[in-house]
């Protein structure tokens, strides 16, 4: 590059989108955990756009901001604003998504293989970033959310809960999840280590 000429800025990543069904898991969580009246309260507090997503059928891409609103609203209404409830939502999503395949999957596959396969399905739920899963010791994996356009704490907490419950469904004796990096605190990626016995 010639002297005095500055390098052009890197292209900004486009805003992330998420599947409507992924957002609707929050609505299903409220119904399952707190009941029909609570779900009515939840829907009444939602923005018009989020309410449309929660009450519509079929699947489509929606703005990631709806995922954040849906998750934060659950935490506000049912956990006094404590966003760590996002982990419970992630755990619920893991069970919901596994469905009838659970017993077959866990009879054949190790927890690390299940998480790797699930990581490969990332682009079914989000159209930005990727979920990378790599071995970590004898009974663990490192889960890394890479290149996601708009990191958010409720998203990371949801993924933590999802990862933990995904492994727990295989019935190990103990499962732990430890966050090892967060982009919101300056790390190059959001990542966690999942270990089991």
Would you give an account of this structure?
With 197 residues, the protein is of the alpha+beta class. Helices cover 50% and strands 17% of the residues. The chain has helices at residues 20-34, 36-45, 48-55, 64-78, 85-98, 102-108, 111-120, 122-125, 153-168, and strands spanning 17-19, 61-63, 130-135, 140-146, 175-181, 190-196. The strands form two sheets. A four-stranded antiparallel sheet has the order 3-4-6-5, covered by helices on one side. A two-stranded antiparallel sheet has the order 1-2. Strand 3 and strand 4 form a beta hairpin. Helix 1 (20-34) packs across helix 5. The termini are far apart. Residues 1-11 have low confidence and may be disordered.
Summary keywords:
197 residues; alpha+beta; 2 domains; two-stranded antiparallel sheet; 6 strands; 50% helix; globular
């Amino acid at each position: 590059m010639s002297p005095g000429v500055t390098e052009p800025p890197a292209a900004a990543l486009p805003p992330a989108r998420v599947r409507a069904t992924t957002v609707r898991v929050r609505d299903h969580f409220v119904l399952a955990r707190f009941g029909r009246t609570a779900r009515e309260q939840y829907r009444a507090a939602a923005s018009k756009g989020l309410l449309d997503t929660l009450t519509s059928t079929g699947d489509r891409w929606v703005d990631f901001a709806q995922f954040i609103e849906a998750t934060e609203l659950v935490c506000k209404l049912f956990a006094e604003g404590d966003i760590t409830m996002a982990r419970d939502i992630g755990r619920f999503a893991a069970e919901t998504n596994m469905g009838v395949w659970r017993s077959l999957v866990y009879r054949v596959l190790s927890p690390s293989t299940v998480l790797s396969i699930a990581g490969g399905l990332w682009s079914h739920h989000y159209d930005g970033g990727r979920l990378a899963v790599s071995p970590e010791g004898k009974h663990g994996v490192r889960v890394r959310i890479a290149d996601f356009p708009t990191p958010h704490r409720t998203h990371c907490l949801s993924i933590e809960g999802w990862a933990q419950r995904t492994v727990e469904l295989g019935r190990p004796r103990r499962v732990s999840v430890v966050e090892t990096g967060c982009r919101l605190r300056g790390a190059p990626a959001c990542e966690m280590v999942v270990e089991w016995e």
